[in-house]
Amino acid sequence: MYKILANTLFLGKEIIYMPSCHSTNDEALQMLKKPDTREGLIVLTDNQTKGRGQRGNVWVSGAGVNLIMSIILKPGFLAPTEQFYLNIISSLAVAACVQKQVPMCSSQVKWPNDVLLNGKKISGILIENTIQKNSIQWSVVGIGLNVNQSVFQFSKATSLLKETGYTASLPSLFEEVMTTLEYYYLQLKAGKRDALKQEYLSKLFGYREFRKYRSEFVFEGQILDVLETGQLQVQTPKGVQSFDFKEIEFIY
Ligand code: BTN
What we know:
Number of helices: 5
Helix content: 10-25%
Structural class: alpha+beta
Distance between the termini: 38 Å
Strand content: 25-35%
Mean pLDDT: 97
Strand order of the largest sheet: 1-2-3-7-6-5-4
Low-confidence stretches: none
Bound molecules: biotin
């Protein structure tokens, strides 16, 4: 069903498909222990039974209806402090593909790397890196993209089917996401950091808008920037403050 990708340079030249597994990120992290594992390997499943999300959360996905995959990259050109560029390129790639499927709606990126469609979460991304000396040795980019799932536990979750009423082909969408991810990754490798950051900000949910946030207290603030460290820079009633991922929550 999922074919080796023909239109890429290095992504998806090897695919490990498992009808069911605990977590594709865990499987990909295991693959890193093998000496012959190469950049571009993709682990895919139709049924993830112990999917992991950010902040230690679980990622629950219907069986056989969504894209659940982990991509192995070797971004040795990034310093550990530059990890956030991987969040930028992966969320931009997924958002671009979602946008292409639903041109009349706007896809957005919710910091750090959720993808929203019509203000609801359609994709979650979990990036796990290994560090060697002063660079990132391996990166496992785990993507869950809700495609043909019709019912969700959370009201703020959605899928392409829910937003369009149409069923999409998982293999075609898989190919599209991977080709787009490779494009953005190569842009990053070519040093186009400023342009990628600008594109990310242009898609960022809440950028330069007044919205409610929760940190130590609930406040109304405005996102001003995302720093190279990945911190969110926000204008708060107490002045400009920078937040790490676990330090701030959107209220929306
Ligand atoms: C989040 O929004 O919390 C991130 C969710 C990431 C889910 C994906 S699905 C494929 C990969 N395998 C996992 O166990 N998690 C990621």
